[in-house]
Amino acid sequence: MRHPIIEKLQIPEGISCQYDGEILKCSKDSVDLERKIKVPEVELKIQGSEIALECKKGNKNHYKKIKSNVTHIKNLFLGLQEKFVYHLEAVNVHFPMTIKVEGNKVTIGNFLGEKVPRHATILPNVDVEIKGQKITVSSHNRDAAGQTAANLEKAARLKGRDRRIFQDGIFITEKPGRKI
Asked: What pTM value is reported for the model?
């Protein structure tokens, strides 16, 4: 059965939001974040200090999509207040690997004695710090920080070897909100 669904979200103090077309732009001080929010049959309205997602005739699928977008908007607000930080650790059993930041890429050299270095992409507005075997990825954008951390993990992934013996790689040890 279809019925109206309305989800309202309070905009925190000091944050200004604009919705143009399909892009929600939020800013606080010098930090600007934006996210594409497009859900068919759902309207996003900014009314004073509230953001309302409204569907005139919705079902459970509309409700799920609205709730997902509410969470994305909450992550925008959290990102405007503080950075999302991912902690990674480089583990090597066989050969000591060298990790360097070069522009918008991280270069992983001597991984398992390989002659050709591996590369991981750093997304825009993401900071990567390397101190020995510890790697810190931070950004105001949760998606960009998480994807950069995943790129680092994926670049040092092993294929076709026994994981019990070859435990080398780069692994996420701490995510925002929880420790692994």
From this structure: 0.88
